[in-house]
Structure formats: C-alpha cells, structure tokens
Amino acid sequence: MQVMIIGAGGMLGRKLAARIAADGALEGKPVEALSLIDVVAPEAPAGFAGKASCEAADLSAPGVAAALVAARPEVIVHLAAIVSGEAEADFDKGYRINLDGTRLLFEAIRAEAAKAPYRPRVVFTSSIAVFGAPFPEVIDDEFFCAPLTSYGAQKAIGELLLNDYTRRGFMDGIAIRLPTICIRPGKPNAAASGFFSNILREPLVGQEAVLPVEESVRHWHASPRAAVGFLVRAASMDLAPLGNRRTLNLPGLSATVGEQIEALRRVAGERAVKLIRRVPDPTIARIVAGWPENFTATRAKTLGFAAETTFDEIIRVHIEDELGGSPPG
Amino acid sequence: MQVMIIGAGGMLGRKLAARIAADGALEGKPVEALSLIDVVAPEAPAGFAGKASCEAADLSAPGVAAALVAARPEVIVHLAAIVSGEAEADFDKGYRINLDGTRLLFEAIRAEAAKAPYRPRVVFTSSIAVFGAPFPEVIDDEFFCAPLTSYGAQKAIGELLLNDYTRRGFMDGIAIRLPTICIRPGKPNAAASGFFSNILREPLVGQEAVLPVEESVRHWHASPRAAVGFLVRAASMDLAPLGNRRTLNLPGLSATVGEQIEALRRVAGERAVKLIRRVPDPTIARIVAGWPENFTATRAKTLGFAAETTFDEIIRVHIEDELGGSPPG
After folding, report:
1. Span B194-220+252-294+308-322 CATH architecture
2. Which domain of life is it from (chains A, B) (predicted)?
C-alpha cells in the first residue's frame, strides 16, 4: 500500500510517519511506499523498510495537487494547515491554504478518478474549533458548527466538501475533529492553548512554567500518541458504518487545569508542581472561555477510537515517548 | 437606499422586486435605486418611482462580482443559485455557481471595503437542504448540517463564509434557510417537491394534479408572500441581536399532505379535491422521506419572522396573489 502524508513536517505528521515506519503497516496492512509532503521537505522516518519519498510542495499552488495525486496513493492523510492564530491574522493566506488547498486536493482526486477508477482513503484532520460558544457543557455528535475563527470556518468547510465528495463516490473520506493535543512536545509556545502543555512538560524537566488561567478551566485533551492512533485507525478502518456522515468528534479527556496539576503531583511530586507560576492573563482567560470543555464522542467511541481516560496516563505517555521512560528530575 | 437583487429573474426575486417597487421602501426605509441582476436580464418591476436597472450577468464569471459591487449598494440580496437537481446532475456547475459565485461576491465586497469604508447588508438565501436524514421530528436551532445533496453542501458552505466574513467585519450578513415555498406559482414542474404545490394550484383552477406520495407525508412550508416578507425583514432589521450566529431556520408550517388536502377541501370544495389523482411514485417517496418535517425556528420567531399558521391561509394567499382574489372554478 502507498500512503501519502500532506503536512508531514508537523508534529503529528512526523509521529505518524514514525509509527508507520516502525509498524511497516497500517493496522496490519503492509505499507510499501510512504510519500511525505510539506512546504519544507520533511525528513524520512528512521527504519522504514519500504520506499520513502520526501518532497517540498505547497498544495495551494497551481498543479501541485494533481502532481501529488498522479501517483495514486491508496491513503492520503491531509494534515496541512495554517494554524488558528495565523489564519486569523492573515485572512487570505488562511483561506488559500486551509480552504483552497483542501479543495484543490479533493478536485485533483476527482480528476484522477475520471481517468481510471480511483477512490483513495482521505483522512482530513479537522478541529474542535468548528464549534463556537455558547455551547452545552457536553457537546454531542449532532451539535452545529458555529465557528468563531476563520480557521474553524475553513475546517468546517473542508468537512462539508469531504462529505460531499465522499457521498458522490469520488473518494472514501473521513474528517476527524481532534481534541487539543497535550502534552505537546517541544518548546513552550505563545499559542493561547500552549499553557495546557507547558504546565506539565516544563515542570517534568525541572523548568518553570506559567499558568495564565484559573484552575477551574476545563478543556478537552488527548496525547500525541492517542492522536496518531486516531490517524492510523481513520486511515485503515472500514468506513461503511459511518454512512454519509463522515465527520467524527473524537474521544478525549475532559479535565480541569486543577486536575492536570493533581495528576502532575501524583506522577512527578510536589517539587514539579511548585514550578508552576500563576500569572493571570485576562486575554488568554477570555479566549479560553470560548472553547469547548467536553464531548460525548459517542459515534467515534463506538467505532473503536480511544483516548486516555486520566491525566496521569497522558503524563506517563509523554514520559515514555519524549523523556525516554522516566522524568529526568 | 440602493438595493441589489442577484438572481432577480427567479420567482422570489421578481416578487421581492415587485414588493419593493410597490412599497418604494424596505420596511420604511426609502429605496431610491433598484439593481436587478440575473443570467438573463430581469424585467423592471411596474410602478417603481426610483431608478431601476436590469442587467444580465453571471456572478461566477471573472470580474463580474467586482463590477456589481463597485456601485456600493447598501443592501445585496443574493438569491442566485443552481437548484438542487441541477447541482446534483452537474457537479462542476453547482460548485461554480453556488459556491464560487457566492464566495466571489463576498470577496468583491471585502475588496471594495478595503478601498473605502463599506459594509453592506447581505441577505443570502440558504435552504433546509443543509439538513440530511436522519434527524429529529422537530429540528432545533442548533442541529448540525449533514447535507445529502451537493446543493445542500454548497448552501452550508455559503453560510459558513457569510458568518466568517460578517464576524470579520467585511459585511453585515444574514443567511436564511427558507422552508419549501408553497403554493409555488406557475406550471407544474418535475422537481421532486413539485407535487406539494401542484396538488393545490392545479385543482384551484380546475386542472388535475398527481399526488405521488402517501397523505401521511409531512413537510415544512411557507407561501411566496411569507418568503418575500422574510427577505424584506432580513434586508432591513437590526442584526446585532444575532451576534455572530447569522444563520436562521425560518418559521414555516409543518403539515401533512392530508392536511393540505383538507385545507383545499375547506377553501375550494370537494370538486377541487377530486382532481387530485393518486399515482404512487416510489422514487419520489424515497427522496421526500429524507426531507425535514418540522422546525422550532425559535430564534427567527423571536426576531419577528413570521409565516402562515394554517394551510387554509397559504391557499388564500395564493388565491389573492395569483388568482385575483377568488378561485376561477
């Protein structure tokens, strides 16, 4: 099987490529070729026995989508996107990459299928940013999209396109709305959601981290490892049970910041917790207040998607996957 | 005030232009200029005291949207669309007219606003086709879009764009999801929904009509006069109370075919009812089974949108507006 990952240079793309390289397969189906695409050529994952190709390409540029799809990959994982903050700051760029890029990909698949039968699996990563406040405490699978960012609007449009192209038989698509990824590896960043990861990741290695909101703030999380599991499952499972509704709210863990901190205390002790510095930031508090807190994710759970159920588990996953098994402290 | 109607040649566009011409205003605000656009130049409405201009233009063609918006109309009513059946039969045309045409209009408005302050009222007619079965018996204002036609997907995408462009301050938009229009004037047509009108309109003038479904079939209706009232209200009301949620399910009348027929009996007698010929059509029955039956339309009602509450009323509106006040029979 030939798998293409568009947006393979990002955190999730790299982890997915590494997982496929390690498994040599997608849930038991052998992967012979891995095509990794990003605006800067991604690195090939270590230890892949098949053929890996890495290419720099901008999906939104003329002809690029057609050239990529000409290789007829059986599975296309479309992760490429401008993030929320940038899509809000640069309206044209957000629509060009997040909407036009996605539509050009789908159109290229349709054009390829018009030449000779072709119906690839397409996994599109959407986001809980398709929802906008006010919403119920727990969002069910039939709650409407009312995004409050251009990024959220672009993702919701991508979902509608994917569902229509799939219903029309041009592809076999699935759109998955990922929880916030926690603990995000790497450096602290300035994204409004950054602190959810920072307050765990930094103290685990003896560094200070800033908490800008109250401990009562509740949010929706899954580990990078769970997210890769979602992608693998979406790329390989039989999608017929989804019928014409190819968009899923994925499972996650609904937890308060206080619960995150208690888990940190249990896993890494009081010394780690003491490294969290409380610096209230009203701007971040206001942004975060507009974010979803909890989901039923009933359909996705029924279909076998699974995330962590405690923050202790999320922290242990980080220790295993990023810190070599034990916190250095 | 300058009002532009795009798609002014259709049934609703003509009726809206006639209403504005008769009133010389939009809910009390004087209209000095009326610009009517369609792919074939529409006719100017009779009796308009202001300046009417009628123009043939295809919104999806390069440069057309910019040229239209250059006149800076304060109100733009965007009715232009390829209907459901055609959008399903011609994938490219549906996306070109219904999605690209709408997006080009919104982009032209944004570009015009970048030259000098401009924030027109934009009324976008969406449809209950944004919903796809299965759904609850009564659809509330927060039920999700899962369209089962490309037309429905294109309308749902138009709504998302309108909401985002409005949130970003580029326009003052409202998207209204119209009920099925009944009694639709004119000739019987082959649309799957045609019979809802045919079984009343034809018998009222002594003609036979075919009923292809069971009398138990329930659907969601409003008269053409109510629809024009929706457009006038959407074009003129203060939209601030809608906040960032600029899409409305509009009120209508939920009625079974049996209830339609009973109303016909009360208004036009047994002789009219006897002109309805039952010719079951499994294809139409299957299509109609996937359509919504009822809505709460709570937000729209709170905002002053109103439709008929009995089918007797819908029939009387047709008699007054299309048959000169009394059924010829």
Report:
1. Alpha-Beta Complex (3.90)
2. Bacteria
Does the structure show a pLDDT above 90 at A65? yes
Count of beta carbons in the 10 Å neighbourhood of residue B123: 26
Please list every residue in chain A whose beta carbon sits closer than 8 Å to the beta carbon of residue B84: none
With an 8 Å Cβ cutoff, are A160 and B156 in contact? yes
Q: Alpha helices of chain A — where are they, by DSSP H?
A: 11-23, 64-69, 84-89, 91-94, 102-115, 150-167, 194-204, 224-236, 257-273, 282-289, 298-302, 311-322
Domain A194-220+252-293+308-322 has CATH 3.30.70.270: no
Residues 31-90 of A with CB under 8 A from B: none
Contact A160 B145 (CB under 8 A): yes
Confirm or reject contact between A111 and chain B (CB < 8 A).
no
**Backbone phi, psi, residue B81, to 5°:** -165, 150
Q: Which fold has domain B2-180+223-249?
A: Rossmann fold (3.40.50)
Q: Does B113 touch chain A (CB under 8 A)?
A: no
A94 reaches B (C-beta below 8 A): no
- Interval A84-128: pLDDT, tens: 889 999 999 999 999 999 999 999 999 999 999 999 999 999 999
For residue A158, the chain B residue with the least C-alpha distance is B157
Give yes or no for A156 touching B (CB within 8 A).
yes
Q: How far is CA A37 from the centre of its chain?
A: 16
CA–CA separation, A244 and A42 (whole Å): 34
Question: Tokens 């369209």 correspond to what residue?
Answer: B147
pLDDT for res B188: 78
pLDDT (mean) for A64-76: 97
Interface with chain A: mutation pick from B160, B245, B296, B298, highest number of A CBs within 10 Å: B160
Q: How many CB pairs below 8 Å do chains A and B form together?
A: 55
Q: Which residues pair with A123 in a beta bridge?
A: A77, A174
Structure tokens, B214 = 């069971």
Fold topology of A2-180+222-249: Rossmann fold (3.40.50)
Is the Cβ pair B150, A164 closer than 8 Å? yes
Q: Does A93 touch chain B (CB under 8 A)?
A: no
Whether residue B245 lies within 8 A of chain A, CB to CB, comes out as yes
Q: Is the pLDDT of residue A328 over 70?
A: no
A146–B244 CB contact, under 8 Å: yes
pLDDT in tens, A134-189: 999 999 999 999 999 999 999 999 999 999 999 999 999 999 999 999 999 998 77
Q: Delimit the domains of chain A by residue range.
A: 2-180+222-249, 194-220+252-293+308-322
Substitution target in A84, A110, A144 with the highest count of B β-carbons within 10 Å is A144
Residues of chain B with pLDDT under 70: 190, 327-329
**CA B262 to chain CA mean position, Å:** 26
- The answer to whether B77 and B16 have CB atoms below 8 angstroms apart is yes
- Quote the pLDDT of residue A169: 97
Q: Given pLDDT bands bounded at 50, 70 and 90, which one contains residue A329?
A: low
Contact B91 A147 (CB under 8 A): no
pLDDT at site A327: 65
Mean pLDDT of chain A: 96
